[in-house]
Amino acid sequence: MAATAGPADGNWFGFTTGQIVQEFGYDDDVDSDLRAAIEATTGAELAYEDHEDVVDGTIIWWRADDAEAGDLTDLLVDAMGNLDDGGLIWVLTPKPGRPGHVTPADVAEAADTAGLQATSAVSAGANWAGFRLLARGRGR
């Protein structure tokens, strides 16, 4: 996975105006500036976990204490259920040294088991790292 940095405007997630992005794992520790940047980019609030319509992208806040690694796989499969063909999934985890840190290998393993591949990693704010996932064969 290549590490890249991106501007705070939210475009570097690959989302565009008019898209619907579903959010999983929201809690009081999420990066509110990052959420606001995505909402400003798309022009819409993030959709809740129970959103049942098709979405253009997904962000998942995942921490080590959220559950077992297999549970991340299950969540990725669930997230793909609403995802439009070609949509992006981003898994956001606490950076190394922060409470709840998840290793990139754990994210990659869960992605692989779910039929996804990790294509890049970014520093997503002061406390979060982001991993971009795509379905295998969708080289975007």
UniProtKB/TrEMBL annotation:
Protein name: DUF3052 domain-containing protein
Protein's organism: Georgenia faecalis
Annotated InterPro entries: DUF3052
